[in-house]
Amino acid sequence: NPIAGRVRLADLPLNADLRGRSPYGAPQLDVPVRLNTNENPYPPPPELVADVARAVEEAARELHRYPDRDAVALREDLARYLSGATGVPLTAANVWAANGSNEVLQQILQAFGGPGRTALGFEPSYSMHSIIAAGTRTEWVPAPRRADFSLDVERAAAVIAEHRPDVVFVTSPNNPTGQSVPVADVRRLVDAAPGLVVVDEAYAEFSSRPSAVTLLDELGHKLVVSRTMSKAFAFAGGRLGYLAAAPAVVDALQLVRLPYHLSVLTQAAARAALRHADQTLASVHRLSDERDRVAETLSATGFSVVPSDANFVLFGQFADADAVWRAYLDRGVLIRNVGVAGHLRVTVGTPEENEAFLAASKEIAAEHP
Ligand code: PMP
């Protein structure tokens, strides 16, 4: 029994908003095939690992000092990458970085949400948006998608005009459903919104659609685009998310960020990983091809598959999604029950992992017709 182990959560003077809640997170189970958290299945190449180790060793010599509070060199590198990817000439002044895009999103709601303010999102989508809203005491307004999970942009604009939220979240490609939102639709939503529109592009590299970053010059007073190195960049363990916005938005986030939030080790490792971006991102095409193969095979097996632009696929229909999730787990394949009725989400893995998943799917289709 640990010291003070008799103290229970219910004994603590916890804020009433948090009572009865459970922490966010998928089960981290040690099974052979893990396809549940949308990571890149390919480990970093040895040259990248060596470069990160060298950079971290060098940074370690300065560990007695606080890091660059503004992470300028890293933001310059991110701006260079994102300019190359989108064709928009961004500078470090347009880019802000934090420990994962979750922290970026939290900082956005700390600065632009909060008590008395509202944030709106189109569900089902990334559930951390509403959880971060709750954590920043921002009132959450859930708005609907079509039955096929696509975004009805005219209806969305009408809902925004009705509720006048301070912050709107648009996830493109959307997690967990996979569809992208066309840039013209993002413009329509920004026009309808009285406040900020945050386009969460965590999976943008897997999509062939243009990025909302292309709208920034025109709509920078209301548009923010968030990105992450956790998915395509194969850097989920490094914890590095970022955004592109008007420099004034970056100034606003500086008001809420904790000083020295990005450690000297994180900054050094992320910069080293970015130097290998071309090599890392080569896996993106392979994964997109595999996604299409997984989706087609699932369809041919009799499942209904939601079209995806990302590195995961939502599929169904199941009378009891939880029982089916367990049936995969029994076969050594961990996928995700994201709480969308009748559906499960599978992350695209290596061809071998996908084969294991598809083989399990054929058995399960026979068992759960
Ligand atoms: N946005 C979306 C849509 C995501 O799916 C995720 C990760 N699941 C994130 C943001 C956050 O990722 P990270 O904090 O690792 O950047």
TrEMBL record:
* Residue(s) carrying N6-(pyridoxal phosphate)lysine: 231
Q: What is this protein called?
A: Histidinol-phosphate aminotransferase
What cofactor is this protein dependent on? pyridoxal 5'-phosphate
Q: How does it assemble?
A: Homodimer.
Q: Which UniProt keywords apply?
A: Amino-acid biosynthesis, Aminotransferase, Histidine biosynthesis, Pyridoxal phosphate, Transferase
Ranges for domain Aminotransferase class I/classII large: 33-359
Task: Tell me the NCBIfam families matching this sequence.
Answer: hisC, PRK03317.1
One MF annotation (Gene Ontology) recorded for this entry: histidinol-phosphate transaminase activity
Kindly list any coiled-coil regions of this protein. Answer: none
**Which family does the UniProt entry place this protein in?**
Belongs to the class-II pyridoxal-phosphate-dependent aminotransferase family. Histidinol-phosphate aminotransferase subfamily.
Which PANTHER family does the entry link to?
HISTIDINOL-PHOSPHATE AMINOTRANSFERASE (PTHR42885:SF2), HISTIDINOL-PHOSPHATE AMINOTRANSFERASE-RELATED (PTHR42885)
Pfam families (alphabetical): Aminotran_1_2 (PF00155)
Q: Which organism is it from?
A: Streptoalloteichus hindustanus
- Biological processes, Gene Ontology terms: L-histidine biosynthetic process
Q: Which SUPFAM superfamilies does the entry mention?
A: PLP-dependent transferases
Query: Its catalytic activity?
Result: L-histidinol phosphate + 2-oxoglutarate = 3-(imidazol-4-yl)-2-oxopropyl phosphate + L-glutamate
Keyword Zinc-finger belongs to the record:
no
Q: What is its EC number?
A: 2.6.1.9
Give the superkingdom in one word.
Bacteria
EC top class, as a word: transferase
Pathways involved: Amino-acid biosynthesis; L-histidine biosynthesis; L-histidine from 5-phospho-alpha-D-ribose 1-diphosphate: step 7/9
